[in-house]
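Read as chain and fold; for instance:
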Amino acid sequence: MNEHTRPDLIRHLLTASTSTGRVHSFDHCKLQNAALYPQWNHPIDRAIAGGCASADAGFAFAFGYQAALQALAPAHIDDRPAAFCVRESGGNSPSAIQTTLHRITPQRALLNGTKSFVTNADQAELLLVAASCGQEEPGPDGKSRNRLALALVPAQQTGVSIKLLPPLPFAPSIHHGSAHFDQVPVSAAQW
């Protein structure tokens, strides 16, 4: 990737051609994100550039969301659309996570559970899934804590199913849904 600075980003935004039009569909958002990925080193720069090219707040959010996931897991989240799968029926706090990542061997595990609200649910190619390892660890206060891991799962992986939820009125262009994981195989490189 080329090294750019914020003045470069500002100059780019002020002089960028609008010949491709504003981002108005998720397919266009995906193409624009792929174009921004090698152009800008920092996720925040990609979020700003993509947001400025967006036709509505939903697509601006999508660029910011993707950039946040790239910052969270830079070695795993690239220009492909991704989703962070955390929220469950009991909430999104660590103690509420019931989805499990059960290790079968040192190099293989199975992912099981349901996430109740996933942004980009059916549009994501990569799912970053918070799961309980089935072990508890003492926290700084001495109380037991649910030990969590993040598993990176291709959205088309066997055992993954997505169910769309009704569109949100303030961002109908960005889909939301639930995700169910049934005996999804996960390699050690994915967690």
Remarks:
- Helices lie at 6-15, 26-39, 43-52, 57-72.
- The radius of gyration is 18 Å.
- Strands lie at 82-85, 100-105, 108-119, 126-138, 144-154, 160-164, 176-187.
- The longest strand covers residues 126-138.
